[in-house]
Write a structure and sequence with these properties.
Layout (H helix, E strand, L loop, with lengths): L6 H12 L1 H18 L3 H16 L4 H10 L2 H13 L1
Helix pairs in contact: 2-3, 2-5, 3-4
Amino acid sequence: MDRQFSKNVQRKIRDFYDNREAVGLQRLQELVTELYLAEGKKREKTWGMIEAALKKTGMKEDRIAHLRQQDDPQLLAKVVAELMAQ
């Protein structure tokens, strides 16, 4: 299936893939904020989304597990700040 896209659509597709990392990091920042406010089941669900987002950044599984075990939003915020600085 060889699809031909208009120049406008090609630009949007290219921009999407060019900015995918920045969008992922922004989503991580939003999830840290949600984690500060979450309790109970919502907190567990938020951690699941955070783990998935961290895996997409290429972070090692053991570091993700350590962050989850600590369950500290401030520590997670520092890690996200490190990722933003890279």
